[in-house]
Predict the structure.
Amino acid sequence: MQTPQLSDALTDFNLHQAWSKVYEKQGCAGVDYQTPAAFADRLHKNLEILRDEVNYKTYQPQPLLRIELEKPTGGTRLLSIPTVRDRILQTAVTRVIEPLFEAEFEDCSFAYRKGRSVDQALDRIQLLQRQGYHWVVDADIQCFFDSIDHALLMTMVGKLVTDVGLLRLIEQWLCATVVDGDRRFVLSKGVAQGSPIGPLLSNLYLHHLDEALLDNNLCLIRFADDFLILCKSRDHAEQALELTDSLLGELRLTLNTRKTQIVHFNQGFRFLGVQFIRSLAFKTEADEPNLLAFPERDEEADIDKDLTELGRSHPCDLDPGIPCRDDGSERSAEPQTIMQLAFNNANVSAKDFTAREQPQGNLERPDEQDLPADHEQLLRTLYLLQHGQVLGKESERLIVRQEQKTVREIPAIKVDQIMVFGNAQITTQAMQFCLQERIPIYLLSGQGHYYGVIDSFNTEPVLLQREQFLRANDDAFCLKLAAAMVHGKIANSRLMLQRQARRHDSAALHTAADALKNTLAHLGGASSLDELRGFEGSAANAYFQALSATVDDSWGFSRRVRQPPTDGINAMLSYGYTLLFYNIYSLLRSRGLNPQVGFLHALRQGHPALASDMMEEFRSIVVDAVVWKLAVNRQLTPDDFDYPKTAGEGCFLKPHARQTFIKALEEKFNSAIAHPVTGTALDYRRCMEYQVQHLSQVIRGIDADYQAMVLR
């Protein structure tokens, strides 16, 4: 099994899944009084800040809030609750390391594990009884969760998890500060009851006990710190108890002598809320299973009831002096899934997502998969396409006006980037808001020529950018990285030719595909960036000349012409590459890399070279695929373009054609494929983000080699 890395925990997909799980629990606020609903108000920004803090090693867990809960059977239980942001990060880490831990765990352990339950543990007890195991060591560990030795636990974790970033986080969570009223103290031992990662760590700590008892041919049923050892004679039971006491001593734990006993089924005993006596087993109201120790990991709804009620409380219910917020709004219909509920609370709905691309005509979707209906776009783009439009801001909403009439209102939380085409305007208030919220505003001509970007100044990623600049001065590093990027571009271009060859009877497509295969074989021999760019250029020429055979002659397309485009196909390609370029630019910027300093394209004033580098592997599988779909299916025709009237002018999309093209490209961005490396269903924007994150790891030296995203 592949060893998990910190980058796996911090992917956009994993963080959103973790947030959804935390939101589902609806637990109470932590010491910062921030509820899951309040965190959701600025979900995207909050998750981005959390990830940046971890990446740049500025993350510090906030103190744990000590809460006292009444047990159903009387008495109280003390929980130490992390803040929402810390619960999300712990859940994200748990998601990526849990499979590794589960592969080690034994079948005798039933608590806090997917697919395992109280009923399964009880069934196992009754089965063993029928097989003649009538003597029972009914054991309980003294203050188990508060007695776990941190050094021993981290040694156990280190045998499974090797990534230093993950180990650093786990150690930080173990040694957290606890706030209990006016008292503050640091945990020197124990695992915080109430933390999402606690159950996994607790099970790992007792894994040594499980293994040793099973190795001695003992029948063990363990549910967290409560466990039974079933034997066929009292002598064997006494030996098992002696061995257990010794093993717990190795773990620096002790038995709770008050609750530990050797008993026969005829005498009866209680375990997991069930009374066993002779061959009978019936539920009691006492000694319910210890799932309340970790509310975020509860899988039994009836046991979780008290914590659910606590989670419904506002912070002011815990401390009357704390102001709380409740807008009292009502929804017209209840959401059908927890994810929908979470997105609704974040002011995001399925209506904000463009429909996924559907196959038309004889065009296939060999890679694309369905995503959940509540799948969230990664970069939500506001396009201002009409001349005279004005973008303003009122309260927390962006307002688009045309001739002083409001034509659209968008909650600001739903916008990640703005693209302004032509003679549209932005008010000072809207511009200031975008700068504060780090929402870039791209200014382009009506035909898509880039003028500039209005962006905030951010010094957070300076350390990463320093490493990026040093790498850019390393000729060997640049050549190796650039070769991987060019390989990705040519391999995906060849795939496009092969797919078109299945739809069009053209020898040119097969010939070009073979030529690109030959080019791929020679890339490794390139001794300089110029030679590598030569391979790239010759492959691009062969690629586009072959593709010209797949479109009607009325398009007038025979080869790639960039500045200016001379026909409708070239106009769509240029327009699409522009939009792809600035999506990549936004992802680079949001992940802390400098878009200006690249490794394949030459560094020159005013050219974001790294954005050009990163878009290469996506050109054919995203933009070219959309262009050929629109052209072959006649969704756009040559009549939808303005052609040059004099020499030197370009061919451009008409206004309605621009809208059609943007809609089709957005649908493509938001359609899903199985990522060729992870196998996870991701939309194309998240695939781009994955590559940006991967590049960042290569620059830091965490990943050895850059692997371009190549579809199969």
About this structure: The longest strand covers residues 64-70. The longest helix spans residues 475-501.
